[in-house]
Amino acid sequence: MVTNQWSNAVSDNFERFKKCAVDVLSVDESAVVPEATFESLDADSLDLVELVMALEEEFDVNVEEEELEGVNTIQAAFDLVTSKL
Amino acid sequence: MVSARVVLVTGGNRGIGHAIAKRFAAAGHQVAITSRSGQADDSDDLLVVQADVTDSASVDAAVSEVEEKLGPVEILVSNAGITKDGLVLRMSDDDFMDVIDANLNGGFRVAKRVSKGMMKSRWGRMIFISSIVGLGGQAGQANYAASKAGLIGMAKSFAKEFASRGITANVVCPGPIETDMLAALTDAQRDAMLSVVPVGRLGQGDEIAAAVEFLASDSAAYITGTVLPVDGGYSMG
Fold first, then answer.
1. What's the domain count of chain A?
2. What is the pLDDT of residues B170-198, one digit of tens each?
3. CATH number of residue A50's parent domain
């Protein structure tokens, strides 16, 4: 029971995350997979800043500049944001 | 027919800033101005917001108030500025820093704060009011000149960073303009200044406002990172 609730919460969050990524990066939903790198999604540094701002608003969290260091994939960004929930 | 925009003019309570604010308001835009006191004369058609541009929290609160009452800022005229003139040897560290903080850092604070909204709407105009003094220097104004020159490098960086988002950033360098700031000069100083202005007179605040209005327009979408002196020919060549 608990496991299902947990994985539902995670997949709900990922859906919300995906929507932000699609809106900001103008990519297809199908491209937003955990292992995708931002480079492969044609996201430059300004895109990333915009994405982080959108995620901060969507999830009502705060992400510090230093924390973005090394966050190169969708999975990494998702983990960073959800770790703050 | 020009689309009505939300305009913010810092230091729009008097002088050049006020002339700019009035011109935008007369053209049908929704205009907010900041002043340190939160007061301004001749401001019935303006939203007056209290702000001290040397304080990030104050800037944040002021812009939030504008966003709440008028909407996201689409055109920013970063004009707030002070002078603390003095010869280098007699200029304290504080006098130097205070002017940099208000004129340059203040410009950064406000521009950064409004850039988020501009990025979201993929449209924005930032016009930084520099000065001919920022281009050519002026004895007794090392601090003011440094702050105004600094705005140029900063504006160009903004221009490059935000170009892909439909946001332009430009600089206007007013020459000698008939305002309080110049009323403080002696007759001898004014005459000396006028003798090197080819057009042979002081400029009017509205003449600066006209240049700013153009740079803020849809027609100026292909103009970014420029420095436009409006100075009767003073700084040419």
1. 1
2. 999 999 999 887 888 888 988 888 899 99
3. 1.10.1200.10
For B116-130, the pLDDT digits (tens) are 999 989 999 999 999
B195 touching A (Cβ < 8 Å): no
CA proximity to A47, closest of B161, B209, B40, B216: B161
pTM value is 0.91
Q: Say if the Cβ atoms of A50 and B119 lie within 8 Å.
A: yes
Domain chopping of chain B, boundaries = 6-178+205-226
d(CA B33, CA A23): 33
CA B237 remoteness from chain centre: 24
Tokens of B225: 């990172």
Segments forming the whole domain that contains residue A74: 2-82
CATH code that applies to domain B6-178+205-226? 3.40.50.720
Place of tokens 């420029």: B226
Q: Is B103 helix (H, G, I), strand (E, B) or coil?
A: helix
Q: Does B161 touch chain A (CB under 8 A)?
A: yes
Residue-by-residue DSSP string for A41-85: TT--HHHHHHHHHHHHHHHT----GGGGTT--BHHHHHHHHHTT-
Contacts of A16 (CB under 8 A, 6+ apart): A58, A59
Tally of CB atoms within 10 A around B188: 8
Q: Is the model's pLDDT at A54 over the cut of 80?
A: yes
Catalytic, out of A28, A44, A47, A79: A44
Closest CA to B33 of B4, B82, B70: B70
Q: Where on the phi/psi map is residue B168: left (φ > 0), alpha (ψ -120 to 50), or beta?
A: beta
**Cα distance between residue A78 and residue A35, in whole Å:** 11
Q: What is the pLDDT of residue A10?
A: 84
Token reading at A33? 């997979």
CA dihedral B48, B33, B7, B127 (to 10 degrees): -170
